[in-house]
Amino acid sequence: MADLDHLTQSLARNLKRWRGERGYTLDSLAARSGVSRGMIIQIEQARTNPSVGIAVKLADALGVSIATLLDRDHGPQVRVVPPGDAMRMWSTPAGSFNELLVGTELRGPLELWSWWLESGDGSSSDPHPDGTIELIHVTAGVLTLVVDGEPHTVPAGASVVFEANAPHTYRNDGTEAVSLKMAVAVPPAR
Questions:
Q1: Strand pairing of 110-117 and 178-185?
Q2: Which of 44, 50, 52, 126 has its CA 20 to 30 A from that of 98?
Q3: DSSP one-letter string for 62-127
Q4: How confident is the model at residue 73 (pLDDT cuts 50, 70, 90)?
Q5: What crossing angle do the helices spanning 2-22 and 52-62 adopt, rounded to 10°?
């Protein structure tokens, strides 16, 4: 539970900070992100821990990475993130999950993720800002990547790159678990 408390406090502190630095009111951030004003207030007061989708919408609207909202990106130029410090952001009762491994704001937000999808599981994402690129390398199983309604089969050992400004879903339609690494590059805020 300490990790969840740390996540909630980091989001509260950093969301307030970045909203202030961007000069956004609660209403303007709500309009830019599609997240309700009430939800933003709850997050800033550390009264709730939002879903990954809400956190991504807020990060996108602020032009920062999830890592920045989680305090994961401050420190020296070389930063080693130990295996136990990866931040689990999404999970299912079946055992699927994703973890934010590391991120940076240099030259625009850049994040490295690790995903595990059990058979029959999947996760959907809203469109990211124009210019956002996702690179995926599947290390086990067969990923079904659906971008703007079109499915793409990505077997173990294969990689895929796409512009993530359309709705997209990561699915495991097979019987073997899917393991993948993903890099997400978001253009810098203008």
A1: antiparallel
A2: 44
A3: HT--HHHHTTTT-S-SS----GGG-EEEEE-TTS-EEEEEEEE-TTS-EEEEEEEE-TT-EEEEPP
A4: very low
A5: 30
Residue with tokens 């401050």: 74
Cβ-in-10-Å burial (0-12, 13-18, 19+) of 5 comes to exposed
Contact in structure between 24 and 32 (CB atoms under 8 Å): yes
pLDDT at 46: 87
Q: What residues have CB less than 8 Å from 101, skipping those under 6 apart? A: 81, 86, 112, 113, 114
Between residues 36 and 190, the one the model is more confident about: 36
Angstrom distance (rounded) from CA 129 to CA 160: 19
Burial track 136-174 (b if 16+ CB lie within 10 A, e otherwise): bbbeebbbbbbbeeeeeebeeeeebebebeeebebbbbb
DSSP single-letter state for residue 131: T
Could you tell me the pLDDT band of residue 76, with boundaries at 50, 70 and 90? very low
Question: Using CA of residue 112, residue 113, residue 114, residue 117, what is the dihedral sign?
Answer: negative
Task: Measure the CA–CA gap between 7 and 11, rounded to whole angstroms.
Answer: 6
